[in-house]
Specification:
Blueprint lengths: L3 E5 L6 H9 L17 E7 L2 E7 L10 H15 L2 E7 L6 H11 L4 E7 L6 H6 L10 E2 L8 H11 L1
Parallel strand pairs: 1-3, 1-4, 4-5, 5-6
Antiparallel strand pairs: 2-3
Helix pairs in contact: 2-3
The structure holds guanosine-5'-diphosphate and magnesium ion.
Guanosine-5'-diphosphate binds next to helix 1.
Protein name: GTPase Der
Organism: Elongatibacter sediminis
Subunit structure: Associates with the 50S ribosomal subunit.
Length: about 160
Amino acid sequence: MLPVVAIVGRPNVGKSTLFNALTRTRDALVADMPGVTRDRQYGICRVGPRPCVLVDTGGLVAQAEGIDSLTARQVRQAVEEAAVVLFVVSARDGLTAADREIVEDLRRSDRSVLLVANKIDGLEHHVAAADFAELGMGEPLTVSAEHRRGLETLMDAAADAL
Ligand code: GDP
Ligand code: MG
């Protein structure tokens, strides 16, 4: 069995864009509308020398449910099967209440979690990163999934966490 790396985070932070960048596919649906990705997507990516299964937790859908409970359930399911979790936040939006809720969930698991601040393009790295310090997860790995920046460093960190 290949190790599983799960991408979690609230809607619209760029999880599917990151999934596509790391798997070099367009399989995951990228949308401007929060909560639009409907299915969990699986792909293969390389983490250091090792092939891994990458999971994009877009949405397991239940549109009637509030985004918060939906997001929380996805996180739990993905985290359960993951060796490493990429917790994605948006450097553009800064820290949100939904981010904090996900962190609460992640703390209850014993998985390795990497904090990934996406959408760093056009922003000062240290300014963007400072907002997330209060999560107590250390310096975020800063990336731009859209511009394929920081992905090598991210995958090196993931390899160390495997
Ligand atoms: P998801 O809901 O977390 O899967 O987010 P998506 O991957 O669907 O992306 C949501 C929006 O953010 C889309 O409009 C993307 O084009 C945009 N986006 C994703 N990554 C980046 C990035 O690195 N920089 C910027 N500026 N926008 C991004
Ligand atoms: Mg998505």
